[in-house]
Write a structure and sequence with these properties.
Helix content: 10-25%
CATH superfamily of the domain at 151-234 and 398-626: Zn peptidases
Bound molecules: zinc ion
Number of helices: 12
Radius of gyration: 25 Å
CATH topology of the domain at 151-234 and 398-626: Aminopeptidase
Distance between the termini: 30 Å
Shape: globular
Strand content: 15-25%
Largest sheet: 9 strands, mixed
Structural class: alpha/beta
Oligomer: single chain
CATH architecture of the domain at 151-234 and 398-626: 3-Layer(aba) Sandwich
Number of strands: 24
Amino acid sequence: MTKNHPSLRKAASNADLYANPSPPQQLRHSHSTLARSHTTAALPRRSLADWDKRPQMGEKGRARHSYAAPYPNLIEDDEDFRPNRQQQSPPPVPPKILEEVPVPAPILEFRDGEYRLPACKITSKPVPSHPWLPAQLPPVPVRREKVKADPGRYTKPFTDFMTANPTVFHAVDAVAKDLEQDGYNKLSERDAWDLKAGGKYYVDRNGTSLIAFAIGDNYKAGNGAAIVAGHIDALTAKLKPISKLRNKAGYLQLGVAPYAGALNDTWWDRDLGIGGRVLVKEHGKIVTKLVKLDWPIARIPTLAPHFGAAANGPFNRETQMVPIVGLDNSDFNGLNASTGRALECEGEWKASPLGGEGAFAATQPERLVKAISSELGITDYSTIVNWELELFDVQPATTGGLDREFIFAGRIDDKLCSWAAIQALLNSDASLSTSSQIRVVALFDDEEVGSLLRQGARGNFLPSVVERIVEEFAESKVKNSLARTYANSFLVSSDVIHAVNPNFLNAYLENHSPRLNIGPAVSADSNAHMTTDAVSTAILQRCVDADAGTRKQDPKLQVFQIRNDSRSGGTVGPMLSAATGIRAIDCGIPQLSMHSIRATTGSQDPGLGVFAFQSFLERFEEVDKEFK
Ligand SMILES: [Zn+2]
């Protein structure tokens, strides 16, 4: 989600902090006819034992939001995590989360010339989510018996994903590998596509944004798409093109620039690693390699308060927040202490000898080039064509609180919703055979900086993918089919939402203050920074209600709206729905400390997000018939 305006903080500091907001209000339709029914939400995808057998991953992660704030453009923040040095390029792949199934493997039946899973047998009638709600929606067919899914099953896989994938490059790569493991086929925008009904595909752009889609067995051109879209970038500090700086007073420093709202006050005195992608010339080709140096390499030191006014902000992010990455006292001549020259000691800038004159490596800190090369097995520095590296907090994501009811992590905004959406898509495999729609999860880069680049949501990535799908299936009148597809589709714009902070209650709006471990929150804004309206809220609520009672904990949709004296953040929702005409809602998972380098969400919230998104992906087709 996007950042809130500073006025929020002002309101909090000046307001009555003892006035508690009312308990979160759940969205409910008094005349809802949705019923509890069978879904694949609880279907096991992979056993926990399998999960435990996976290699230990380094930890990384990153998230961000955009804040619509008072600015015309969105502002984004990042959070960082630590990766594992043992896992380099490719990075560890976060496994798809599978529910435990205390159910014996199904006995295959020989039908239609081959062994098949037994036909679905619904053993119990769908039960209404509430006694007064009649059961009308038909159950989504499932292939196996299901047990009630526990949202807690998703906690550790989520924290592992966050720790192992600290940069946008690692996160997208990990998602791609998880999709491939589930049978998704990789597509390239540069090639012709050969799509089939029942097929599952994904395509990335720039290695920093990704769209995954599954085509229902009964899909026809013009049918709708159920889309969950979010952003997978996060606030960070990126290395400048020439990151080698002059040494100052014996310190080796690194030239970095903030991405979105990074290098804010939360970046002082943190243990920072370095990661990203490196372009290397190999056998006449330029290949991309991902790299993580996940030990504390860099640090931005505070000035002790003893220095008085000099220690008080605001601070200059160009001159006073330059990370230190090493020591070089080779210029120390013993006179500095008495003459004070140490304070002026600043060596001449000169290119590194690595890679030879004119080489990219020569413009970067020599010891950093060596460290990166060591990780990637590069012996000829001149083969490094270029790189995009960034800083990230190496502290692993972890659970916390007396009963581990929190998750503390960097980059939650918005790898949280992105990760949950992918898990939901993977979980929905079993019901694809009865679907007549397309299911899409789109993860965009650059949301925190306005989404304007080609891999951002304002680019043509999503429309281009949808158009190519429709074109593949349309026998004639492609434009007509495309227009109908958009009109029959629905978009859940999923970005993290501000959870209520008990120390700043008056910064929040009464009855619109989402809590942790309850469920995603629908975010509304009267000035159209969000896409939410009555119809879209009703549609999503109907989808979630349809699976009420089928899990150990139902996700309860909460509501969030910013106070009139604050400004709402922004998401990818308005730009995507405006570009395509697709109906949309903004609904994200709550978190504390948005845009801090270290944020908090609930331990059950990743799983509750998975449940809500899965209900949408699987239920939208039936629910939408009520609105036509
Ligand atoms: Zn966000």
